Amino acid sequence: MRLICAALFGISLVATATVAEAHVSIVSGSAVTAKSQKITFGVGHGCDGADTVKIRVEIPAGISGVRPLASDFATPSVEKTGDNVTAVTWDKPAEALQDGDVQYYELTLRARVDAPAFSTLLWHVYQTCRTKAGVETVVPWIEAPGGTGDPAPALIVAPAHLPGWNKITLDATTTVAATSLPTYLGDAQIVWRGSAAFSTNANTMAMVAATPGVTALSGDLAPNDVLWVKY
């Protein structure tokens, strides 16, 4: 039945600012495990009307081979332990300070994601803002989910895959909650586990519901589950 239905669907962070005022997040989308890729941080706002002048990003476990990119914001500097980059800082030149909070910034680094698929990496990011009078505010974006402080940027780690069909087998220690399927597999066209299917596309799921012998994938993914996933 999977093959028949596959053909059917083959047609296609001193913090005075609030989250709303100065959210720093990862805007490059999910990462892929065991691969080097660009990771971009978006700085949506400054702090209470003050311009952002420095961003410091601490490198979490599960990330290696870090090489930051220069930007029109600043040329980056790195901190190391041995050969490993442990933090990257973009520090804007004093003459580039804006009169107010008028710009959106993106800062990028290239790194290898060694963390396993179906995991989420939290990054500790420190945002410094400065007024024209020289008053600085530091916002630590370091809070884990469920906390009351400013949330740490989260990097979703998806399975390695190629365009087309992929066989993905969960390892013996991995469980994925059903509610997390859109998080880790949301960019897939369709996901099969046996004769049960999942997609974030409502039209695709309508076709699943209309296909005899096929059900919507429900329940958590369990260790050693085998998935057929089309990207």
Report the principal-axis shape.
Answer: elongated
Strand order of the largest sheet: 6-7-4-10-11
Can you tell me the CATH superfamily of the largest domain?
A: Uncharacterised protein YcnI-like PF07987, DUF1775
The number of distinct β-strands equals 17
The biggest sheet amounts to:
5 strands, antiparallel
Terminal CA distance reads 20 Å
CATH topology of the largest domain: Immunoglobulin-like
DSSP strand (E) fraction?
35-45%
Number of domains: 2
Q: Helicity level, as a percent range?
A: 10-25%
Structural category is: mainly beta
Mean pLDDT: 91
CATH-defined architecture of the largest domain: Sandwich
Quick synopsis:
This protein has 231 residues and is mainly beta. The chain is 11% helix and 39% strand.
Q: What can you tell me about this protein's structure?
A:
With 231 residues, the chain is mainly beta. It has 2 domains: 19-158, Uncharacterised protein YcnI-like PF07987, DUF1775 (Immunoglobulin-like); 161-230, no CATH class. Helices cover 11% and strands 39% of the residues. It has 4 helices and 17 strands. The protein has helices spanning 2-9, 19-22, 181-185, 202-209, and strands at 24-26, 31-32, 35-43, 51-58, 63-68, 76-81, 84-91, 105-113, 119-122, 125-130, 136-141, 154-158, 165-169, 190-193, 196-198, 215-216, 226-230. Strands 6-7-4-10-11 form a 5-stranded antiparallel sheet, with no helix packed on it. The chain has a 5-stranded mixed sheet with strand order 13-17-14-15-16, with helices on one face. Strand 15 (196-198), helix 4 (202-209) and strand 16 (215-216) form a beta-alpha-beta unit. The chain is elongated and about 70 Å long.
